[in-house]
Amino acid sequence: MRTALDCPFSPGSDTIPQVWAGRTAQLSDWRDVLRPRRIAGLPERGRTILGEAGLGKSALVRRIARDGAAAGDWVTPQLRMPSGSDPLKLVARALLGLADRAGLPTSREKRISDLLSRVETVAAQGFSVTLGHQSGPEPFTALTDLLVEIGRAAIRQGDVAVLIHIDEVQNIDDKDSLSQLLISLGDAMAYETTATAPGGVEFPRSLPLAVYLTGLPDFAGAAGADKGATFTRRFKTTTLAPLGNEDLASALQPFVADGWPVPNGEGGIGRVRMTPEARDAILQACCGEPFLFQLAGEQAWYAAETEVITREQVIAGWRAARPEAAAHVERILQRLPDSERKFLEAMARLAPEDRSLTRIAEAAGYPGASSAGPTSQRLDGMRGIIARGKRYTFRHRAVEAYLTSDWPEMA
Ligand SMILES: Nc1ncnc2c1ncn2[C@@H]1O[C@H](COP(=O)(O)OP(=O)(O)OP(=O)(O)O)[C@@H](O)[C@H]1O
Ligand SMILES: [Mg+2]
Fold this sequence. Notes:
By secondary structure, this protein is of the alpha/beta class. It has helices at residues 24-39, 57-70, 87-101, 110-125, 128-131, 139-157, 175-190, 218-234, 245-257, 276-286, 290-302, 311-335, 338-349, 357-363, 373-382, 397-404, and strands at residues 46-50, 74-75, 79-80, 162-167, 192-196, 202-206, 209-215, 235-239, 260-263, 269-274, 308-309, 386-387, 393-394. The chain has 3 domains: 24-239, Rossmann fold; 243-332, no CATH class; 336-404, Arc Repressor Mutant, subunit A (Orthogonal Bundle), CATH 1.10.10. Strands 1, 2, 3, 4, 7 and 8 form a 6-stranded parallel sheet that branches. A 3-stranded mixed sheet has the order 9-10-11. The chain has a two-stranded antiparallel sheet with strand order 5-6. The longest helix is centred in the C-terminal third of the chain and has 25 residues, at 311-335. It is globular. The chain binds adenosine-5'-triphosphate and magnesium ion. Magnesium ion binds next to helix 2.
């Protein structure tokens, strides 16, 4: 009944999971705000979606792009920025793909064919085009110009948004190419063209371009600090939190209610069910981490072949997954600067009612509460791992469980 081929859980990264939970605010932001506003020619900032590893940033925007493509939008694939590489090259290559989609290569205008060859050069040589001291505009202006032409083509087509998804933005370590990239995307989004209303009245409108940047929270520092106001004026940043238990329970409801449909091997459809206790055990194991949710689900699926997934199977499956679950949280902690990790460890050692900034600062060896201020601010505002208040609490439930209990052990 339950085979590897039918398993709907997918703990691999960069997939759009079949068992989808939550993120309704972000999905509706695209559907109800960003997409319709840009298509209507209204200004609307690009979106930056940040969060710790495994919180589902890539999956979220891939899903938005998939929904967009299904509605006829022109979307780039997820453009993952490998560290040390030139982002302009990758983006130029993707824009040429969009230009194809927009039919620009068939244009007989010389201006357009010149523009396409300028962007071909950027795709081949990237940022180094600038270093060649050749005359002519900087490479990023070629990208901006092409984006504008793609946007105009989308207006002619009607009811189409252009979506650009740049992932792992924290890997863009070269300040100049990051700045060029952000300026180019920002300029294209801010660009206004003239549209004509029925009756011949001309009015300015923005292009139907939407840009999503996704990556680790460290990007906020890198982009915010030196790009300052320009960047924040042009991109709206959201830091993802873990998934709530209600969302996770809803995602598993099809298993509990009707059973998840799978081929039964005889040409028909069988159904894999889950007891409510098994569902609760998955919620307890994963602590709201999308990655661990998929992992717990997958392991429970493989734990037996029966029609019903039971609590015992979830626990047996999780036992096999424990090392990976612990490694997931350890990776998050290890990536943090020393000061932040020490702060979290000190916070975890205190009883929940003792977690005031003063007490945590003291436990972490700071001379006073105020000197721990910047660290606690980063852990809250930038990373979303803790929430400050009179008493500090953890928002990242897996980090909390790891530091304060014997999780990933499960009775
Ligand atoms: N909304 C969701 N509901 C259920 N599972 C999800 C959801 N979002 C992501 N996942 C699962 O979580 C895992 C991690 O997702 P994803 O790779 O998108 O995370 P990420 O934040 O991009 O991580 P990284 O920082 O490592 O790139 C994947 O297995 C994915 O299937
Ligand atoms: Mg990712």
